[in-house]
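Need residues for this backbone.
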């Protein structure tokens, strides 16, 4: 195990670009929560084989001299995700690990960003706008980032398992295969989504235009999630 020591601040993430996003915010006078929002957004772009905005997040927050707290950004289960709903679709033993019927809880990650920003403002005098905190992530999604060995190798390993999942090939494969190490990986739709969140706020993901689009596409794919669940 390596030990690292810092003087004016430190940011740690699985990808260097995410760490740099956090450090950039700190250098502009942002606080730790603002820095972590920036890092979380960037890691969802540059580490796509292990992270995304479509999951959940859990925060441990501590300020010197104060009681430790946290943010539980874990979405609730869909109202339709009942034993009977699955039985009507021939699923009587276990919910499949992949596919639309497995998409049965609301993604809480974006709400976690919103909660963290609110806590940042009320408890740490945070002032940076969400547009600044998501700026790096938006840039990397639009301009692209070099594919890492871990992304390429894991995508190749999981290709057969995920190839039939709607959207997987168009998003993560190049000509039907895992992207080559060092090639530039762009995510245009993710960039548009992040721009919308930066412009309208995190609530748009649950109660705005993004929520309506998300609910529509999930319903069409066969997920039990509905717009009412996002609210």
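Answer:
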């Amino acid at each position: 195990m390596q030990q690292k020591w810092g003087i004016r601040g430190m940011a740690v993430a699985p990808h260097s670009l995410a760490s740099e996003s956090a450090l950039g915010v700190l250098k502009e006078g942002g606080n730790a929560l603002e820095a972590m929002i920036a890092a979380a957004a960037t890691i969802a772009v540059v580490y796509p084989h292990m992270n995304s905005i479509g999951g959940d997040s859990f925060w441990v927050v501590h300020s010197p001299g104060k009681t430790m707290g946290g943010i539980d950004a874990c979405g609730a289960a869909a109202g339709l995700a009942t034993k009977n709903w699955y039985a009507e679709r021939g699923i009587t033993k276990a919910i499949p690990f992949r596919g639309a019927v497995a998409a049965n809880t609301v993604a809480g990650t974006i709400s976690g960003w919103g909660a963290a920003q609110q806590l940042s403002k009320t408890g740490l005098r945070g002032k940076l706008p969400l547009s600044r905190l998501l700026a790096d992530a938006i840039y990397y999604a639009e301009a692209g980032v070099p594919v890492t060995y871990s992304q390429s190798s894991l995508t190749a390993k999981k290709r057969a398992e995920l190839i039939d999942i709607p959207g997987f090939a168009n998003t993560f494969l190049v000509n039907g295969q895992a992207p080559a190490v060092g090639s530039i990986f762009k995510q245009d739709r993710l960039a548009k989504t992040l721009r919308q969140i930066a412009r309208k706020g995190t609530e748009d993901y649950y109660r705005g235009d993004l929520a309506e689009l998300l609910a529509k596409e999930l319903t069409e794919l066969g997920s039990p999630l509905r717009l009412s669940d996002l609210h």
